[in-house]
Amino acid sequence: MKPHLKKFIYKTILLSAIISFATLLVFTILLKEFYLPIYPFVIIFFAIVSISVHYILLKSSQRKANFFVNNFMMSTIIKLFVYLGFVAIYLVFDKQNKIPFIIFFMINYLVFSVFEISTLLSDLKNAN
Prior knowledge:
The chain has 4 helices and no strands. It is an all-alpha fold.
């Protein structure tokens, strides 16, 4: 396994643990009535998608710049559809908790997106 990917997996696990701990604190102290059992799976889902996309982008960064840009754009589009599909499937089965779920999902989306982009930029800068 390449060092950049190994480091990213470690950071992703650490970020997921921090988010899980924060979720535990927030939903046991402040927002007990809004906790949903799906929350841990949302964090795991984001971690798996992030690691997969990061791996693909690191591999494509070793080729021509156009290839990387195309892969980055395509992975972003596919990732958005995967996220949309996850949300849609969940909402089909649990319509009454849609607002807390969507808020939690969007917060995780924002946190993982910032993390992915900053880590990818750092890895690409160090690789060159």
